[in-house]
Write a structure and sequence with these properties.
With 137 residues, the chain is α/β, with parallel strands linked by helices. The chain contains seven helices and five strands, in the order βααβααβααβαβ. A five-stranded parallel β-sheet has the order 3-2-1-4-5.
């Protein structure tokens, strides 16, 4: 099975104090044990790296970069994908939807991915199956 992993999931896995940590940890372990292909875009990696460095510090960033990133199938955003994501974002008129999320939606649809490991309602709204409860409990 192939699953898209979002910044919200990476952060919840790494931050033991995050409200979603226990749920994220359980899903993460299951995905690893099932030998799932974990997919994300380079945009997600940039967003996650910034968030992890700022909120959790350089040690957590090192864990992310050295232990987690090598396990991922990274989809690099090309110009057509970027433009499709920008158009989706502008069409949405939403303040809470991000360009990174829109790029994820485009990548997921192009790859035929229907499942995401996220703590972000936008993925549900876009019709993707989420492996976690949103909001987490």
């Amino acid at each position: 099975m192939n699953v898209h992993v979002d910044t919200s999931a990476f952060f919840a896995v790494l931050d033991g104090d995050d409200l979603c940590h226990l749920a994220a940890e359980a899903v993460w372990i299951r995905l690893i044990q099932e030998d799932t292909t974990l997919v994300c875009s380079n945009y997600v990696l940039v967003e996650a790296s910034v968030l992890i460095q700022r909120r959790l510090g350089p040690k957590a960033l090192r864990v992310f970069q050295e232990d987690i990133v090598p396990m991922l199938s990274v989809q690099w955003i090309d110009e057509p994908t970027h433009q499709a994501a920008v158009q989706m974002l502008l069409k949405s008129g939403s303040r809470s939807l991000s360009l990174v999320d829109c790029a994820s939606f485009v990548v997921m649809r192009r790859m035929g991915l229907g499942t995401a490991f996220v703590f972000d309602r936008h993925f549900q709204t876009q019709g993707f199956r989420c492996l976690t409860r949103i909001p987490c409990e």
